C-alpha cells in the first residue's frame, strides 16, 4: 500500500487531475482565525505517506470559514481511542487494510453500532479494491463514500472532503434542532408541572440556560403594575443581580425595548428575549454569553419563549382557579363557623398543626408517594373543612351542652358523610388533588379509627386517607386541649398520654410520632 495515494496523485493518466495546491486565501486577522472552530477529520491509515500527502493537499482548505484540523491514527486500535475521546469528529478518511485485511470495515461497525455515532461521515479509501469489493461494502456497511486510492487526485480528494463536511454540517444541524426541541419539550413539561409562581420563574431561568449552554447567566425581568422594571429571578452570573440598574447600558436599553413589545435582540455578549403573554405583565429574559446564539439557537429560543408565554398564561389561570377555591373554602368554613361558635379558632389551629405534621412526615421520608409539596400545601386549608357537614345537623343537637343521647349521637355522626358529599359536589371532576377534594377526604374520614372501629364507613389502617389520619390526631389534640360547651380543657400531659395510648387503635402510630416530634421541636413539649 505504501505510496499508493502519493503515486496516484503524481501520475495523472487523464492529464487533468495532477496534484494542485489551492491558492492562498486572503489573509484574515489572527483573532478571526483563532475564533473559527476547526472541522476535525480523522485520517486512519497505516501508511505514513498517505497522512502527509492528505495534509498537504487539504492544508489550506476552509469550509464555511472554518479550517480543518487533522488527527492521525496509524491503526484501527489508535482510531478507536481517538473516536472515543473526540465526539465531534466530522469525517474519517479510513483505509480498509491496516492491522488486518478487514480492520477498516470492523472499525466502521464499531463507529456505527458500538459508539452509535451516525453523524460522522466515513470515506473508505483502499489501495486494494479486491480486498473490499465496492458493491459488497456499500450494501453491507454504513459508509458515505468509497474511493480507490488510484482515483483520488487532489481535486477529487478536495471535492470528497468538502462534500463530507457539508453533509456532516446538515446532520449536525438536524441533530441540534432535535436536541433543542427535545430540551424545549422536557423543559416546558417540567415548568407546566409547577404550580408555584416562584418555582416556575426559577425554572424558566434554569431551563433557558440548558437550551443555550454557552450562556453563563440568565435573568427574568418583568414590568410591575406601576410600569417599573423588576428583577424576578436570576441564575449563573446573574444570580442575585441588583435589578435592572446593575445592567450595562446597552443591555438595559435592549431590555427596555423588549419589554416595550419589540422582538428579541441578540448582540455580542448578550441576548434579550421578549415574552408576550395575554394575562401576564410584559416580561423578558436577559442572557449573557461570550457569543451570540447561532441561527438554529435563535429559532429554538423563539420557540421556547412562545411556549413560556403559554406557560405563564396557564399559571395565571391556575392561580385564578386557586383563588376561587380558596374563596370557596373560606366561605364554607364561615358557614360551619356560623353553625358552631367554637369552630373558628379551632380550625385555624388545626390547619397549622396539620401542615406542620405533613411537613414532618415529608422530612422523615414517610409516605413518599403521597406526601409531597402539593400535599403539604393543600392540607392546612383543606382541614378547615373537616366539620363542614355540621351545617346539616340540627342546632339543638349541635349546641347541646351535655352528653348526647344515642339517637342524637347517631344524628351527629352523620356530619362526616354530609361534609363529604357537599365537598365532592363542589370539587367536581378535577383529576388532580384540590383543597375541596382533599377536604372531602378529610370530612369523611377524620372520625375513622386506625383499628376499624370508627365511622362512617369503618375503614382501617392505610385504607383511611392519610389526610384524614393526620387531621384525626390534630383534631382530638386541639379539641381536648381547649374548653368546649360539653367539657373543660384537659392538661397537656393528659392529652399527650391519650395520644400515646390510642396510637395503633384510634390513631396511625406514624402520625402520632410525627405530631409529638412537631410538639417537641416547637417547644410545646420538652424533649425526653
In brief:
This is Transcriptional regulator. With 528 residues, the protein is an alpha/beta fold. The chain has 3 domains: 4-176, Rossmann fold, CATH 3.40.50.2300; 193-314, 2-Layer Sandwich (Beta-Lactamase), CATH 3.30.450.40; 340-521, Hypothetical protein af1432 (Orthogonal Bundle), CATH 1.10.3210.10.
Would you give an account of this structure?
With 528 residues, the chain is α/β, with parallel strands linked by helices. The protein has three domains: 4-176, Response regulator (Rossmann fold, 3-Layer(aba) Sandwich); 193-314, Beta-Lactamase; 340-521, Hypothetical protein af1432 (Orthogonal Bundle), CATH 1.10.3210. It is built from 18 helices and eleven strands. The chain has helices at residues 4-10, 30-35, 48-58, 76-85, 103-114, 134-140, 154-192, 197-211, 249-259, 295-339, 343-363, 373-382, 395-398, 406-427, 435-445, 466-481, 492-502, 509-521, and strands spanning 39-44, 62-63, 66-73, 89-95, 121-126, 145-148, 215-223, 229-236, 265-267, 270-275, 283-289. The longest helix has 45 residues, at 295-339. The radius of gyration is 36 Å and the shape is elongated.
